[in-house]
Structures are given as C-alpha cells and as structure tokens.
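Question: Hello, beginner here. Any chance you could explain the protein record under this note? Any guidance would be welcome.
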Amino acid sequence: MKKMMIFAVVFAIVAGLLAYIYMSKLEIKYKSMAEPVKVVVAAKRILQGTAIQSNMIKEKEVPKEYVQPKAFQNIKDLFTSDGAAVCISLNTIEEGEQILSTKISGTNQNAGISSLIPEGKKALPIKFDMATSNVLTPGARVDIFSVLEYSDNNKESQESVFAVAQNVLVLAVDNNYIGIAKKQDKADDAEDSGIVILAVSVEETQKILACSKGSLKYVVRPSGDTEISDIQPLKLSSIVKGTSKALPHQDHTKDKELKDQRKILETINKYAGGGK
C-alpha cells in the first residue's frame, strides 16, 4: 500500500512537471504570436494600376500572427533611395490592407513586360476584333467573350457566345504599360497595332487561344469588381425567334437578315459582362 502511495505521488509530481513545461511553452508561443510587428498598409484606397506614392501608405504595428505572407515591413522597400516611386498596384488595395509583394509590381518599362506580370500569371499578347484605342487602358480588368460558329450534334450550323475568361488584368495596350504615363508622341500613336497584353493563367491562355479562331470581344469591368459569374454559352438561335440554326453564309438572299442577327448578338455580347 505504501509503495502504491509513493508511486502515485511520483506520478503526480511528474504529471505536474510535464503540465508546467507544456503550459510554459504554450505561453511562450502565444506571447511570440502576440508580439507586435511592423508592416506597411494602405493609408487610403489605392486603385489598380496606380503608382504608389508615400502619402498612400503607412507603417503599422500588428500582432505577429496577423502578418500576411509576403507583406512589406518597411516603406523604404517601395521607393528608390531618393524617394521616387517604383511600384504600382496590380489590384485595388483597400484602406488598412497590408501591402503584399504579390499585389504590386515595378514601374520600369525599360525592364520589359516581365517585371509587370503578377505571380502565377503569364503575359499573353492578343488582338481583339474591336477597337482598343482610347477605350481600353493598362490596369483595367476585362471579361473576354468569343463568338464561335460550329456544328452541333445534329450537324446543324450554330453560332454562340462563350465567356472565355473573367476578371483579366490588362498589362499593356500597344506601347503603353500599366502604371506608366500614356505616351503622347503622335509618331508612336501611328505605330499602334491594337495589341493588348493580358495577365492570364495557363488555363486561360489555352481557352483564349482556342477561341481566337472565332471573334474575340472584351467587356471592361468597373473598378473593384472581382466577381466571377457562371456564364453559360448563349446560342443565337435561342434569342432569335423562329430560328433553329444559324443561317448559312452562302445564302446571299438572306444576307440582310443574317447581318441583323449578328448586330443583336454583338449588342448582347457588349453588355454580357455581368452574366445576366
């Protein structure tokens, strides 16, 4: 009986010691996580494509556990030694939001487009079947649609509008890059080719290139709109009454009717960005 009591006492002492060690380590861990750490945050809302100035950001202390990965911790890292701006926002950054390296890029156009590509994206040059001059600007976000003609399972000709990609960042339009003042040289304007450079994933690249055989269109998104909608393909025959299939192009006697239907399709395509 005496041995049992001694064993119980020793067990209690060991258990208490282990509990003390565990609680001590836990306390140290939580104290470490609660330790204030300095990070750079937005002092006000910063729109996408904006060159970041010193009055747009500030340093703030937050608990270590709330510091986001790749957050800047020193304002000086966002400027040159003489205080010149060298970074632009690739996304809209809300007031109080931590400045992350994944949401900004350098403004040096001479370094090439590669310095502007967000992490996880590629730069895809593309030419749309609509004007881009004075409409599309670097830093804008667009939804991309394609009008394709194809044969359905019944071997009937169909024409449909497909949502190819949504919320795509425009890195450059011709020789104008995101975050850099637009060129005013008329000689440069004369060389504009309508080429738009997009920041896209590999999957989006495949879809855009596959649909480029048809007619590619874009819809410009409002600033701050990042919603991704489930947009189903829209058949021309479903919106034009009495039409079960697309009219053959070789039927010259009905050219006017076909053109009218295409105008309707383009109008719907123009305003289809919201998925409604």
Summary: The longest strand covers residues 157-173.
